[in-house]
Amino acid sequence: MKNKMPMLLANIFVLFIAVGAFAQEPGVDEIIRKANDAAYYAGRDGRADVKMLITDEGGDTRVREFSLLRLNVEGKDQKFYVYFKAPADVRKMAYLVWKNAGKDDDRWLWLPALNLVKRIAPGDKRTSFVGSDFLYEDVSGRGIHEDDHALVEVKDSEYVIKSTPKDPKSVEFSYYRIWIDKANFLPVKAEYYDKNGKLYRRVEAKKIETIQGYPTVVEAVASDLKAGSHTKDLFSNIKYDIGLKERIFTERFLRRPPREVTR
Amino acid sequence: MQSKTLVLIILCLSIFLLIESVQGQDERVLERLGINVHGFVDLRGGMRTQDDPYERDTSLAEVRMQVDMSKISDVATVQIRADFLYDDVPEDTDIDLEEGTGEMDLREANILFSPWMMMDMKVGRQILTWGTGDLLFINDLFPKDWQSFFAGRDETYLKAPSDAVFVSFFPDVANIDVAYTPRFDSDRYISGERISFWDPMLGRRSGRDNVVDAEKPDEWLSDDEIALRIYRNVAGYEVAVYGYNGFWKSPKGMDPQTGHGTFPKLWAYGASLRGPFGDGLVNLEAGHYISDEDERGDDPFVPNSELRLLAGYEREMAKNFTAKCQYYLEYMEDYGHYKAGLEAGQKGRDRDRHVFTLRLTKLALNQNMTLSFFVYYSPSDEDAYLRPMISHKVTDSWLIMAGANIFTGNEAHTFFGQFEKNTNVYAALRYSF
After folding, report:
1. Residue A252 and residue B170: Cβ atoms within 8 Å?
2. CA separation for the pair B175, B283 (Å, rounded)
3. Above 90 in pLDDT, residue A14?
4. Residue of B112, B156, B276 with shortest CB distance to A122
5. Contact, A230 vs A221, CB < 8 A?
6. Distance between CA atoms of B433 and B429, rounded to whole angstroms?
7. Of the residues A211, B220, B312, B324, which has the fewest C-beta atoms closer than 10 A?
8. Chain A residues touching B72 at Cβ < 8 A
9. From CA B197, how far away is CA A1, in angstroms rounded?
């Protein structure tokens, strides 16, 4: 009995370490949930000015500039307001999105020359956003329940997760890997593999700053490795918790863009 | 003709050079004052693909510069948007800001402000739009520019400006919009000047030889228009009701003494719904047009009352490819009285006018190229109007486009069939700044 005590203590100790280690590494679903919150839901609301530099395979660059407002509403639902500033032919157009988690988004576009509020039919979320290498889903977030997630590697500072679509026919990739910063849970890189298992697309956070306590991506690049094009997103004038009212995200403010975007 | 073309080219070149040289410096000066100046230069030409004895072969020959200036402050937004153009086609080149003829077309000149939190007010020249139809309008009784539309100008020119006071209220229950136009703003209707049409009095097509002479109601405050919309969003569905009191927007009536076109009084009310359905969007709209001056429908010089219905469905068929179809009905009331009022040998319309539309839009080359096809087809009139169009944004500033307006019909007097001789192709080059 006396001899066995050290053994038992050792066993208990090992068990503690194991439990402790387990407690330190959150489960994959929790990592994904936290990453989704960090990337798309920081604060109660927020604003940013976005400059997109779209460089095609020939090296020609096009520029898109817009101001973006975001408000978190119930559950995982959100409302977005996008006010275009460049190029000249889309200037003053405004785009309103009511993101309905798990359902199609409601979307409207305001065309100033016609004073027309046009409703936009629900679309494939894996379509280019304003002709860039970013997809609509990169901007508004992909539902975390649409993929099965597996933790494939734990690095010193990052989790590497492999996400496989539950409905493979609904998307153009067979799976993607995503690198998530352990410290702040921001996704820092995602790589997409096509149906033949070949890497064809990469989205990277190039620069991260902490703004009002929220780690925030201020520079991101999406690359289409097949086409040879890439788009750089530069975010500036980022502010969180500015007290946006829900009424801004309505037809009234499509027709009369709010000061939060025109200033 | 040749010297005009030369003038056109010189004008175009000098405008381009002017913008290019001035943009850098002037922008900074204006920016300091908080005034944004933007716009475009649009060079556009088009021609009929067949002879029209009453019109020129050239359907479009113009260079247009749009200047858009706005000043946004905490108190108000001031907006001025004007087109300066050289237009070779019409004979009438005097500036008329109502009709949109001459060297200047003032599109907008207004001030927008909120007198109190639950109210917005826009006063001045403005473009007004509401309703759910796609190139079909029931409760949108704001002025349209059919000449521009049929001739191949940019689709935005289908909307003509109004001189109005637009007031919106936003109580919790619903949004209320009231548009008051103190002096009637008609459509920029088909007059024969650019587009030939069926003239029922002559029993043939008419054009430049017989331009419509219409008596437009033009008394301030008495010949006015008022339009109302009450709408709200119910769980993602936009529900609206409408009312209108004014005039038929095109000269649908006639003064039998003078033979001039008239704009009889019109009352209208209606409703619409728009929202998700299945994988797409559905829109429904109905309107009742009450032709006050011909309650019994037996006056051949005043249009009868009508019921108008519209149902549409739009969905994305594939990435960057959408399709939209619509069904539209015009139902004439008191049709028997209308028939009885027709003169012997005069071709009348059917009681029901059915129209189907289909729009296909494909974006290609990173959404820099748009291929678009729109068709109106009427099985009752046995006529159709096709609008194919292709445009390419060569750079962020330069756009090239080409398209056609194709009219076809079995009879010369039907809605689209009458324009058969106006079938045209056009091309345009646009520089935005």
Report:
1. yes
2. 19
3. no
4. B276
5. yes
6. 13
7. B220
8. 259, 262
9. 111
Q: What is the pLDDT of residue B18?
A: 62
- Distance of alpha carbon B77 from alpha carbon B75, whole angstroms: 7
Q: Which residues of A touch B279 (CB under 8 A)?
A: 104, 122
Cβ neighbours of A175 (radius 10 Å): 19
Q: How would residue B335 be classed by pLDDT, with cut points 50, 70 and 90?
A: very high
Which residue, B349, B339, B274, B352, is CA-closest to B313? B274
Tokens describing residue A93: 């157009």
Measured distance CA(B239)–CA(A135) in Å, rounded = 31
Q: What is the pLDDT of residues A160-205, one digit of tens each?
A: 999 999 999 999 999 999 999 999 999 999 999 999 999 999 999 9
- Detail the DSSP E strand segments found in B104-181: 104-116, 119-126, 162-169, 175-181
Q: Model pTM?
A: 0.90
Whether A22 shows a pLDDT value over 60: the answer reads no
CB-based burial, B64-96: b 16+ in 10 Å, e otherwise: bbbbbbbebeeeebbbbbbbbbbbbbbeeeeee
- In chain B, how many H helices and how many E strands? 3, 23
State whether A121 and B281 contact (CB < 8 Å): yes
The rounded radius of gyration (Å) of the Cα atoms in chain B is 22
Residues B359/B371, Cβ–Cβ less than 8 Å: no
Which residue of A251, A261, A262, A263 to mutate against B (max B Cβ within 10 Å)? Answer: A251
pLDDT in tens, B32-58: 777 888 999 999 999 999 999 999 999
Q: Residue B316 and residue A122: Cβ atoms within 8 Å?
A: yes
